Amino acid sequence: MKVSIFKRAYALIDSIIAKYLMRNVWVLTGAIFLVISLVIFGNQVASMINESLKYGISATDLLPLISFNMIRDIPLMLSLSLFLAIILAISKFYKNSEAIVMNSLGVGDKHFMVFIQPVVLSIFIFVLFLTTIAVPWTKQERDVILNRSDNASEFSFVKQKEFQKFKNGNIVFYTSKVEDSGSDAQQKMESVFIYTLVNGEPIITLAKQAKKYIDPVTNSVYLRLQNGKRYHGFLTDVNKRILDFDLYDLQIVDGEAVQPNINFTGEESQGMLDLFHSNNPKDMAEFQWRLSQPLSIFILSFLGVLLGKAPSRGGKNLGVLFGVIIFILYNNVLLIAKSSLEHGETSALVGLWWVHLLMLIFILLLYAYRHQKLLTTARFFVK
């Protein structure tokens, strides 16, 4: 009877500690992820805006590109956030002497590793979904947008009060004012100057107003010029011709030139089944890389518990510092192993798995060192 009561009491204590620990890990993970997101995503937004200004990426494509880049980076950011959250949560227990009380009740590192697994499993499943399904899809969509931007008209982004050269200098364009209509395909301009070279003959076109539009049938890009003149030849030429017009459509790009030509054969855009059945080293490396990111979450969760157990004498944030260093080394070695597999320098059987195995050995050695007995490592699997 007494044994049964004690078992129930210990089970209740374990449940309370587990919920308390999981709540701390969830909160810290969210806080750390938010901070990292603000820094990384803020830089990405600024970088994408600069690229849009430089390469003429339309405003409608800018937000999807930023979103795709964010989705691509979420797995790594979540992995780091959870890892640091575990270290900080365990470290907080020891700093507040809560862990000492827990240890006296028989709750130690092994229990902490088990208690946090619901959190780890949830993030593992989410990251696995991202790396195997969401990220490859975003890379496909990103390629479509970038291909469309590359094949779109060079006039897709026009700056006012600035001479711009297109088509290797065969076209010089100037406008005094560009009205933002909210659509890149409906830009309106005033006081337009266009210099073109056709079959060796210079043609200068002046127009009071112009509007860019795309033919929905042929997908060709036009400038609709209003109230202007066309000068064939220079003004000093004897055979010069001057034509007045009220409305003139000048084709900028033929519709066939802006048709996307995307072939999703790159390993980053392929599905998991295609990668699994492929014998291409790059495909095998991509397959193992997608699985390595969520797998590293489990491995780092065990290490986070050990690093969070701060020594009685030492810096308060040594665990976090060591954690960041190990995280960087871990991911860099994975990238090196991925590159080695891509170039056929290692077999698929070795692939990236040796890096995870090496990390597990390091965790076991650290666990044995922290408990001062190598036999403890053996008991870890027996109990």
Structure explained in plain terms:
With 383 residues, the protein is an alpha+beta fold. The chain is 58% helix and 16% strand. It has helices at 2-55, 59-95, 98-104, 109-115, 117-151, 272-276, 281-308, 318-342, 353-370, 375-382; strands spanning 164-166, 171-179, 188-198, 201-214, 221-232, 241-253. It has a six-stranded antiparallel sheet with strand order 1-2-3-4-5-6, with no helix packed on it. Strand 2 (171-179) and strand 3 (188-198) form a beta hairpin. The protein has ten helices and six strands. The protein folds into two domains: 2-150 and 265-382, no CATH class; 157-257, no CATH class.
How confident overall, as mean pLDDT?
78
Strand ordering within the main sheet: 1-2-3-4-5-6
Q: What integer value in Å does the Rg equal?
A: 31 Å
Q: Uncertain segments of ≥5 residues (pLDDT<50)?
A: 257-265
How many domains, as an integer?
Answer: 2
Percent of residues in helices comes to 55-70%
* Tally of strands: 6
β-strand percent reads: 15-25%
User: Any idea what the shape is?
Assistant: elongated
Q: Which secondary-structure class do the elements indicate?
A: alpha+beta
The total of helices stands at 10
How would a crystallographer describe the biggest sheet?
6 strands, antiparallel
The rounded distance between the terminal residues' Cα atoms is 24 Å
Give the ordered list of helices and strands: HHHHHEEEEEEHHHHH
